Amino acid sequence: MEKGITTATDRTTALLCGVRGLELTDEERAFIKRFQPWGFIIFARNVDNPDQLLALTDEMRSLSDHDAVPILVDQEGGRVQRLKPPHWPAYPTGKALGDVYRRDKSAGCRAAYLMSRLHAFDLHAVGVNVDCLPVLDVPTPDGHDVIGDRAYGYDVETVTDLGQAACEGLMAGGVQPVIKHIPGHGRATADSHHALPVVSADLETLRRSDFKPFTTLQHIPMAMTAHVIYSAIDPKLPATTSKKVMDEIVRGEMGYDGLVMCDDITMGALSGGLSDRARAISAAGCDIILHCTGHMDEMVEVAENTPILKNDALRRAERAVVGLSSFDDADVAETRREFAELMGEGPLVAAADPTDYGRTA
Fold this sequence. Notes:
Blueprint: E1 13-17, H1 26-35, E2 37-42, H2 50-62, E3 71-73, E4 75-77, E5 80-81, H3 94-103, H4 105-124, E6 130-131, H5 156-172, E7 176-177, E8 179-182, E9 198-199, H6 203-208, H7 212-216, E10 222-225, E11 229-230, H8 243-253, E12 259-261, H9 274-284, E13 289-291, H10 296-304, H11 311-320, H12 332-343
Parallel strand pairs: 1-2, 1-13, 2-3, 3-6, 6-7, 8-10, 9-11, 10-12
Antiparallel strand pairs: 4-5
């Protein structure tokens, strides 16, 4: 970190949270001042236009007593895109990038890089510095469509190569990627937003397929868990709350020493009250708890049962925000032109070229 920049204080809660609307309420301001969450996550409900979103992220940072505040968004393209037209381009799906890759590997990797670089242009201009991308899940034909066309392909090589290129594009623009959903959601036959998926594949199959992209990209500093049971490892608990999965697979076999955040704690795959969930997630070894709904009663319950950021979790958090103020000299118009040419589409032009990097240290 730069000298004088603080990534957390002795009051920082190991929490990422959402808010309800386009601007902070007095209740939300009081919550932030009281609990000092490590960072925030943005959803479509928080987005109207670039000026409004920048004002929101600026105020979030102003209420935090640490400097390097991560503000996340799920900006993948396709059906998972929180910043949308008319102010932001409609980006293609992961599958569309995979289609280019299957015709020409070099062109596919370049397209994945460029799309992420464009995400970084868009996000930096509105104070967002972390994108929950890439999706490293390797789907199977019988897997649930919750992943579907969000995935780059059905094989390890495609997913790994395009995931790496996507990470590089984001980081070139000073935005950190989050690899998801570790150790792999592609084989799940249920949507973990609503139910608990159980994957019954044997361990060797998982190692050859589902786990491999995450193992290869273990150098990426942030990851998000899968609310999925892997019965060959822990037949009772999903990865998010399984110390066995976290210790033996994620930290052990995969060698992943980056910051691990859970997928949204309110999702239907998890059981028990929110306080029980929060304690179980932390006990399993997740560094950061993610709460997305913005409902204040839930936020307080989760925050009261989430630890202060310290020890290994703090070390990983500090490493995760390195590079948030570093970016290359790419030209936005030329990047959009080249990307559109590779994808065989018309020009991708945002309402205004987002080139003001100075607002998101």
